[in-house]
Design brief:
Elements: E1 3-4, H1 6-14, E2 19-21, E3 28-31, H2 37-43, E4 52-54, H3 58-61, H4 69-82, E5 87-92, E6 108-112, H5 117-126, E7 129-133, H6 145-151, E8 156-158, E9 175-179, E10 184-188
Parallel strand pairs: 1-8, 2-8, 4-6, 5-9
Antiparallel strand pairs: 2-3, 3-7, 4-7, 5-6, 9-10
Helix pairs in contact: 1-5
Length: 202
């Protein structure tokens, strides 16, 4: 049994262990950014598929990206509109980001704030975590902690008693939008339908 309490899961994550918890989209497989290699190994994930940096607030994420003052304004506008929620923004990475998060192209990083009380509670205490969906690479995302526990016995999963009453995730991965330097390019249409009108360009 690897189902643990909220306190133990947070302590495990901070100690560099692999953890899994519910979010507003699909359950996350997560680790502190410096230990992102554990996620690639557990999922048998190709190095060219970067992970997402997830945090409890946008303020926790901005230090990991870099851009001009104008770009920050555009990014902030989209973040204010869709976060917390199922939108991942792929932005230029700052030097603060461990290269192991995106081994092939460490110049960019996807960031997201989930609209999930339990995920936010965890992230507020661990700081930003490297995350991805909990499944073997190429397989559909697993939807329950029990399924995750069966497939990933080494991962600390959050005991179901810890988040009763929480609205379950919608089961659809986040929408991914990449900043090109002048506007947004949709890499994956997912949980959120983006309105990319002209006010979201530099």
């Amino acid at each position: 049994m690897t189902q643990v309490s909220l306190t133990d899961l947070i302590a495990g994550a901070r100690a560099g262990l692999l953890v899994s918890f519910p979010t507003d989209t699909v359950p996350a497989l997560a680790a502190i950014p410096e230990e992102a290699a554990l996620i690639f190994a557990a999922k048998q994930r190709s190095q060219d598929k970067p992970l997402i940096l997830m945090a409890a607030s946008a303020e926790d994420l901005w230090p990991y990206v870099k851009g001009s003052e104008n770009e920050y304004k555009v990014w902030q506008k989209l973040a204010d509109k869709y976060w917390p929620g199922g939108l991942t923004l792929v932005l230029p990475a700052s030097d603060r980001l461990p290269k192991v998060m995106n081994p092939i192209d460490p110049t960019t990083i996807g960031i997201r704030v989930p609209n999930s009380a339990i995920a936010q509670t965890i992230l507020a205490q661990t700081g930003p975590l490297a995350t991805t969906s909990a499944n073997f690479s190429g397989q559909p995302p697993l939807q329950t902690m029990t399924e995750i526990e069966t497939q990933f016995p080494q991962v600390l999963t959050l005991a179901t008693t810890e988040y009763q009453g929480e609205i379950p995730g919608m089961g659809i991965p986040s929408t991914v939008a990449k900043w090109t330097g002048i506007n947004w390019q949709i890499l994956r249409q997912g949980a959120i339908k983006l309105d990319l009108s002209s006010d979201n360009q530099v």
